[in-house]
Amino acid sequence: LTQCGNARLCAAPSRLQPSVATCSSRTAPNGSRYPIFRSSNFCPKSCGHNAEFVDDADFCPRTCARHFFNSQSLGCVTPFGFRSRNVNGQSPLPGCQCKPGFVLDGSNCVLPNECECISNLCIDRQNRTVCEAWKAQGYCDKYPLQMRRYCKLTCDQCQAPCQDQISKTTCQTIKSQGRCSDSFYKQMCQLTCNPSDCECPPCKTVRGPCDSQNKNRRVVTYCYAPDSNGRCQRSQSSSVYEPCGDCQEQQQRVDTRSCNYCTQEQVTRIVRTVRETTGEMRCIEVNSNMTTRSPGCECQTNTNRTVCYRNSELYVINTVSAPSADCATCNTTVTETRLRNVTCTKVVKRGECDQVVTKRRPVTVTRGIVRNCQCDLITEQYEEMCVCPKPHWTPTICHRNRAKLRWFVAFSLVHGRCVPIVKPHKHRVPCPRRHHV
């Protein structure tokens, strides 16, 4: 073996290595030992995390069980994971073993407070004083997963049994050795070491999440009591609700109902958000009706208005509004009445008469033209006669040689004009005959 190259020997098939290791552990006929197959310098074996290769590995390595309970009845566990049948008289062999300060938990090397074999026990893996200090700093709520691993009992994350968590015999041995004062054994052998302190934990209150709509949450209180075997069991629980936020109380109009036109009132539904004072303490909506006087529940005011038809006919329209018999609506009646026909008058104003020179006077005439039942005024100005000539007789003429004829002419002033009035006057007088030469 010593003449084999390192590379060839280290690369030997795995089925050859156990035989070589067995051979190296036996004694030769001359009393000497065969060469050791591996060492820290010759084909060293790669070990796991927190483990190292040594030339004299312990046949009975320190395990979690031996660390905590110092039990001799569990047998030895070799570094390769096999139980040794005969430990006495065996020489140490090279192999893997846990580094100082670590213990063997199955096939892994871990710190004593990381042993998985105690993960289900209701104990603190850290010193009780340290756990209580962490709890005072709020670590139980801030880091629940980590604190469950190291301070499970202190953080009330387990149900503390009122009994020994390991065998009664082992606990009695620990008590006889005076190790009950140790915090670890005080937890593991609670019934044997400290029977007077074996009490169930106090009631525990658990608050649920806050309901975003109702602004409340459920609060459940769990209480414990020991059963016939001394184990704490949940005996009773109570459930209540508590507020967990503001209801944002507000009042709003959400629905407008029909009007009462007789009383001019309206019923409006009011919705308010309030907090329940009993029960689940929810934020609920409360509906109520409110009757108020509303301007929108009044019938229209009666009106009279004048309209013009066909440019000159004037009518009056009367609108009368009154509530119906059931006061649910307003009934409106419209009537038309002929008032009159629009006509325009003419106004004539005459000025002073100039009787000496012109014998005329100014005249102003104002008259109206009907448009859309109104008079549009038009003004005209002119002059008219104001003094007529005196009456007189016309010269006499002979009428058919039988009579003398003349006319009496008089004048009448009519609308600024001198209208002659002629009256003939005939006087029968034989006219002289004409002489013929």
From TrEMBL:
Q: Where are the transmembrane segments?
A: none
Domain ShKT intervals: 122-158, 162-198
Question: Would the keyword Transcription regulation be found if you checked this record's keyword annotation?
Answer: no
Q: Which UniProt keywords apply?
A: Disulfide bond, Signal
User: What SUPFAM superfamilies does the entry give?
Assistant: Serine protease inhibitors
State if Transferase is listed as a keyword.
Answer: no
Q: Which InterPro entries match?
A: PLAC, Ser_inhib-like_sf, ShKT_dom
What superkingdom heads the lineage?
Eukaryota
Tell me where in this chain the PLAC domain is found.
Answer: 158-197
Q: Got any disulfides in this one, which pairs?
A: 171-189, 180-193
What's the name of the protein? ShKT domain-containing protein
